[in-house]
Amino acid sequence: MVQVNGEVVCPRCGTRMEYRVEIEFGENGAKRIRYYYRCPRCGYRENDLVLMIRRDGAGKIVIEKEEYIKVAVAKTSSK
User: Fold this and answer.
1) What is the secondary structure of 5-62 as a DSSP string?
2) Residue 79 placed within a domain
3) Coil, strand or helix: which one is 72?
4) pLDDT truncated to tens, each residue of the chain (79 aa)?
5) Whole-prediction pTM value?
6) Could you tell me if residue 73 is inside a domain?
7) What is the domain extent for residue 38?
8) What b/e sequence results for 53-66 when a residue is b if at least 16 CB atoms lie within 10 Å of its CB, and e otherwise?
9) Number of folded domains that form the chain
């Protein structure tokens, strides 16, 4: 993720990205909550976090967390 002055900017067009939350309702009361950045200009989307909340067979609440780790990749030039 590219940050300029503490704000996340789109790698495609350089516009400040919006942080959004989306909730999906599944079977048996399961919920998937997605946190992501989205560019309002070009629609580019960068995932941040996904939570899956459901009940197991015993009625206990199970929360599964899927984080997206951003890794900077250095560009190399061949000579």
Assistant:
1) TTEEE-TTT-PBPEEEEEEEE-GGG-EEEEEEEE-TTT--EEEEEEEEEEE-TTS-EE
2) no
3) coil
4) 667 777 889 989 989 999 999 999 998 889 999 999 999 999 999 999 999 999 988 889 999 998 877 655 444 545 5
5) 0.74
6) no
7) 2-67
8) bbeeeeeeeeeeee
9) 1
